[in-house]
């Protein structure tokens, strides 16, 4: 399972050398080498800061390398949700931040010869039931000052019952963009170290200690004055962001299609969500179709929704041949606005950037602009809409209560349900958790190889479920994900699942 963007990385800059003991100190340590982390690092390095970026996997291996990579200010029904909860003023601030992020990203690409396709963006209704949501998004665009328009028709082969159109948005392959940031970071004296996972951060009075573990299980400490957690969801529990975000998994497929491919970028208002764009490649254009989303660890058989998405693409694009399949994880905030700023009120040592709700290309860049400005002593007027701590969060309390009640339900269910299964139950293919609470075991068979792990998530003790589409263990509480053998893939957890006893 490799995304179209990550499939051919032969020209990726070589991995930096291991971090020597004398190099384990910096002004700012950025954790995470996706779009938010690397843009933040480059902006700080341009200002003369000594910057170190630590990445558990490789640059872009998380959401950035598994996105649809739409650089759009029209973001599905996002603005109408913000207006409904916070009013037009806050929505305008959110829009301004995204606009500045979009402009910075596109200008950077143009200056370095990185290909960007300018296309119109559409938020559309697949059926009559989706029209009111699309109309509400148009009204929100008008209230926030975004010059969008209503269109009744579009040149597409799938059902289109009208929608919002915003001209001259953008799309790209995000990996050349990340490569350019890595090169500039190195030129400005910054450092990127891949294959090292930050497990904890301590100390908050002028000097931080980050405990780091390598892929070879070696551990050491790194020291910094400030730290930015650009890890999708913060890996530190202080601030309780894991309880203020809902992790969602969504899926993408790329196709080789005979004849012309739809121009423009489309996302539906009504379910099941359908996201469509094209991508130029060295051997012709590809169609990219996304959707089939679900809360992480909650879907019984994600593969059925993915198969439905595949069938939809092949029905509307006859002769389409799938070339790539991938998935990504995104985090939805309880109050619809991102969390960018101190991990705790008044803490200017540790910063977070999360809650981009599937629109990380513009939001991630905006977050980097806001964070770097704050660290350097400046401020962005629109950053109020991105504040990690703000009174506007009160609007999200009902949703947070519901969401965390659901977490409690899944916690209890995870410990009780396996009792109904025999301890020896093992699937012919896939994964299952079984056994009494004092001896739970997760068994997964992938490509004929059996893996046996403790199914207890090391974050907060949730019991993982099996994702039959991604072939991974997923915690339904806060979205930590693990490979069949228990190796940590992503989420708030910082350790692998333990082997079964």
A few lines on this structure:
The protein has 501 residues and is an alpha+beta fold.
CATH structural class of the domain at 25-66 and 175-243 and 336-395: Alpha Beta
The count of strands amounts to 24
- Helix proportion range: 10-25%
pLDDT under 50 segments (min length 5)? Answer: none
Architecture of the domain at 25-66 and 175-243 and 336-395 in CATH?
A: 3-Layer(bba) Sandwich
Secondary structure category:
alpha+beta
CATH superfamily of the domain at 25-66 and 175-243 and 336-395: FAD/NAD(P)-binding domain
Protein name: FAD-dependent oxidoreductase
Domain Rieske: 447-501
Keywords: 2Fe-2S, Iron, Iron-sulfur, Metal-binding
Organism: Mycolicibacterium agri (Mycobacterium agri)
Fold and architecture overview:
The mean pLDDT is 91. This protein has helices at 35-46, 78-86, 88-111, 131-144, 174-187, 302-316, 360-375, 397-416, and strands at residues 25-31, 51-55, 70-71, 116-124, 149-151, 163-172, 191-194, 196-202, 208-214, 219-229, 245-256, 265-268, 274-281, 284-295, 321-333, 339-342, 350-354, 430-434, 441-446, 449-453, 465-467, 472-474, 481-482, 488-490. The chain has eight helices and 24 strands. It is of the alpha+beta class. 50% of the residues are buried. Strands 3, 4, 5, 6, 11, 12, 13, 14 and 15 form a nine-stranded mixed sheet that branches. Helices cover 25% and strands 30% of the residues. A hairpin with a 5-residue loop joins strand 23 and strand 24. Keywords: 2Fe-2S, Iron, Iron-sulfur, Metal-binding. It holds the Pfam family DAO.
């Amino acid at each position: 399972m490799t995304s179209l963007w990550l499939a051919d990385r032969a020209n990726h800059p070589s991995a930096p050398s291991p971090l020597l003991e004398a190099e384990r100190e910096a002004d700012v340590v950025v954790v995470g080498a996706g779009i938010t982390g690397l843009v933040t690092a480059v902006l700080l390095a341009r200002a003369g800061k000594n910057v170190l970026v630590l990445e558990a996997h490789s640059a872009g291996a998380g959401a950035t390398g598994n996105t649809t990579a739409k650089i759009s200010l029209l973001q599905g029904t996002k603005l109408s949700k913000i207006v409904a909860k916070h009013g037009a003023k806050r929505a305008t601030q959110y829009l301004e931040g995204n606009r500045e992020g979009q402009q910075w990203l596109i200008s950077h690409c143009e200056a370095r010869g990185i290909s960007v396709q300018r296309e119109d963006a559409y938020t559309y209704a697949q059926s009559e039931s989706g029209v009111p949501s699309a109309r509400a998004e148009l009204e929100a665009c008008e209230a926030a000052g975004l010059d969008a328009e209503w269109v009744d028709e579009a040149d597409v082969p799938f059902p289109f019952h009208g929608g919002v159109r915003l001209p001259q948005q953008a799309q790209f392959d995000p990996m050349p963009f990340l490569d350019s940031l890595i090169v500039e970071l190195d030129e400005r004296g910054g450092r990127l170290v891949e294959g090292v996972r930050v497990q904890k951060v301590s100390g908050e009075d002028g000097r931080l200690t980050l405990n780091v573990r390598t892929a070879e299980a070696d551990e050491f400490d790194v020291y910094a004055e400030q730290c930015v957690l650009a890890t999708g969801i913060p890996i530190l529990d202080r601030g309780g962001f894991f309880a203020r975000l809902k992790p969602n998994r969504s899926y993408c497929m790329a196709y080789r299609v005979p004849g012309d491919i739809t121009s423009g970028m489309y996302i539906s208002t009504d379910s099941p969500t359908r996201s469509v764009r094209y991508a130029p490649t060295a051997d012709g254009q590809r169609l990219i179709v996304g959707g089939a989303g679900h809360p992480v660890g909650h879907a019984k058989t994600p593969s059925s929704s993915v198969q439905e998405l595949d069938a939809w693409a092949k029905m509307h694009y006859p002769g389409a041949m799938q070339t790539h399949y991938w998935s990504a994880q995104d985090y939805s905030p309880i109050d619809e606005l991102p969390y960018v700023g101190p991990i705790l009120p008044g803490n200017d040592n540790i910063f977070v950037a999360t809650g981009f709700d599937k629109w990380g290309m513009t939001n991630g860049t905006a977050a980097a602009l806001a964070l770097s400005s704050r660290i350097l002593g400046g401020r962005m007027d629109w950053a109020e809409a991105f504040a990690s701590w703000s009174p506007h969060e009160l609007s999200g309390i009902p949703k947070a209560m519901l969401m965390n009640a659901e977490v409690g339900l899944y916690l209890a269910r995870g410990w009780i349900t396996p009792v109904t299964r025999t301890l020896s139950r093992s699937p012919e293919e896939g994964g299952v958790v079984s056994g009494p609470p004092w001896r739970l075991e997760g068994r997964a068979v992938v490509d004929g190889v059996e893996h046996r792990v403790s199914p207890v998530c090391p974050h907060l003790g949730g019991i993982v479920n099996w994702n039959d589409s991604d072939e991974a263990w997923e915690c339904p509480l806060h979205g930590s994900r693990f490979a069949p053998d228990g190796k940590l893939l992503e989420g708030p957890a910082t350790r692998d699942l333990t082997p079964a006893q």
